[in-house]
Design goal:
- By secondary structure, the chain is mostly helical.
- Helices cover 70% and strands 0% of the residues.
- It has 13 helices and no strands.
């Protein structure tokens, strides 16, 4: 992937480096609060018998504290890998809702960029990115680099904290560390979710997911949770289709490199217009 793969347009002052650093800086509060999750995951992986390499490898592949802790607990209980994989999939279904709500803001990116950004989609990145996009900050190029900076910072924080948790796990039992930090992490997630619910589409998706999950709670194998997530994703997609979000109007002035009619696709960047051709003929 290169910067040329991204759609053209946006203010001339926007640079990939600036947007990347802005995304990373926006994650600092989340990185501090999410660091304990990595400590727990590293220590719990050792307690489950995964070893140093196994725990670190799982952390790098899963990129989710919630999913990894659930998988580790199931492995300690003697569950088979099919059960573990299914549980991780269920816990990750909320990313379907996140992707649905982010889609209008990132749909113009090339597929290779969307695939790369999808791996870094975690709770904190979603909340920060959605808030920035709702404010109308950044064209598609800026949005991609901002997202990449935010997800890269969170991923590095996750791996470093897990590695430190592995070291602590040699001295502190994994269960003790998890009990100590479990409630603060839950409270943090609730606070992040509450701050993000400022748009009626988000409220619609959250309300639909909660209502269906509660109604379907008696279903076996936690199928009520799956039904709730699918209902929330469907409600979010329906809200976007019924009332599409208004696109932000680009700022006018000397700092604006393009107007509302500027090309937004990767194939249109740098393409000469018919008017340019006529001017060239007149000059000749």
């Amino acid at each position: 992937m290169t910067d040329d793969d991204l759609p053209a347009g946006g203010p001339a002052t926007v640079t990939p480096r600036r947007e990347f650093l802005d995304g990373a800086r926006a994650m600092v509060p989340f990185m501090i609060s999410a660091f304990p999750m990595g400590l727990i995951a590293g220590a719990a992986g050792l307690a489950a018998g995964l070893g140093v390499l196994g725990t670190l490898g799982m952390a790098m592949a899963v990129n989710s504290g919630t999913a990894m802790l659930a998988a580790v607990q199931l492995l300690r209980a003697g569950a088979g890998w099919p059960v573990v994989l299914l549980t991780v999939l269920v816990l990750s279904l909320r990313m379907l809702i996140y992707a649905t709500l982010l889609r209008p803001h990132l749909a113009s990116l090339p597929r290779r960029w969307r695939i790369a950004l999808a791996f870094g989609l975690v709770d904190a990145v979603f909340f920060a990115a959605l808030e920035r996009y709702r404010a109308g900050l950044g064209d598609p190029r800026a949005r991609a680099w901002y997202f990449l900076g935010a997800s890269g910072a969170m991923y590095a924080n996750w791996i470093c904290s897990t590695a430190l948790g592995l070291a602590l796990g040699l001295a502190v039992p994994g269960d003790s560390l998890q009990v100590l930090l479990e409630f603060p992490m839950t409270a943090l997630f609730i606070a992040m979710l509450a701050l993000a619910l400022v748009d009626w589409r988000l409220w619609t998706a959250a309300a639909a997911a909660a209502a269906v999950a509660l109604l379907a709670r008696p279903l076996p194998y936690n199928l009520g949770l799956i039904a709730g997530v699918l209902a929330g994703a469907a409600a979010g997609m329906l809200s976007e289709r019924l009332v599409p979000p208004a696109d932000p109007v680009p700022a006018s002035g000397p700092d604006s490199a393009s107007g509302p009619d500027s090309a937004s696709g990767p194939d249109s960047a740098g393409a000469p217009s018919d008017e340019d051709g006529r001017h060239a003929e007149g000059a000749a």
